């Protein structure tokens, strides 16, 4: 399918799909839906970014808005920050600056390999943020000229600066409402 055919077809489906090399694939193909932790983290990110970006030209979007990563591939990041002019009746972001993928056991491998490389090739992206739900951990890829620099953030006191969109994300806010299982290393202290 072409992206245009895909968007027309998607309008008549009951679940979200991604287009991968011209083939529609259910977004939650290997999932039975988002877990409560996944949903909580996603909502917390949207609320935090929405409050900070209000009045700017940037705004967070849900996975209902697509991101074209190649001629034949369209992804649906959990959260995208779009900084372009608001265009009505479109299904895709045009000037994305940030994409966020929230880890799910069944999608982490694809998010951290295939999707990560696709996102890195997107010309307008400046940040790719991968978030965990089992611990307060985030991996941010920040574009520096034509290279991507990874930064690891751990612990509830960590704050992720996103100056190119005028925002920051505190892991304490992202993880608000979550409890984490104790780790073996915690018991050894």
TrEMBL record:
InterPro entries: Nuclease_put_TT1808, Restrct_endonuc-II-like, Uma2
Domain Putative restriction endonuclease: residue ranges: 3-165
Keywords, comma-separated and alphabetical: Endonuclease, Hydrolase, Nuclease
MF terms (GO), sorted A to Z: endonuclease activity
Pfam families documented for this protein: Uma2
Protein name: Uma2 family endonuclease
């Amino acid at each position: 399918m072409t992206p245009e055919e895909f968007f027309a077809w998607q309008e008549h489906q009951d679940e979200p799909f991604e287009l991968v090399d011209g083939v529609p694939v259910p977004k939650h193909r290997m999932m039975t839906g988002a877990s409560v932790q996944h949903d909580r983290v996603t909502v917390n990110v949207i609320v935090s970014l929405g409050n900070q970006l209000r009045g700017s030209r940037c705004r967070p979007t849900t996975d209902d808005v697509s991101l074209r990563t190649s001629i034949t591939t369209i992804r649906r990041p959990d959260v995208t920050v779009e900084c372009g002019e608001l265009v009505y009746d479109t299904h895709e972001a045009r000037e994305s600056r940030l994409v966020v993928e929230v880890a799910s056991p069944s999608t982490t491998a694809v998010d951290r390999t295939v999707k990560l490389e696709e996102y890195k090739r997107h010309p307008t992206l400046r940040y790719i943020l991968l978030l965990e739900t089992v611990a307060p951990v985030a991996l941010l890829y920040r574009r520096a000229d034509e290279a991507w620099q990874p930064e690891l953030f751990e612990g509830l006191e960590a704050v992720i600066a996103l100056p190119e969109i005028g925002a920051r994300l505190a892991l304490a806010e992202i993880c608000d409402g979550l409890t984490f299982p104790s780790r073996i290393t915690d018991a050894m202290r």
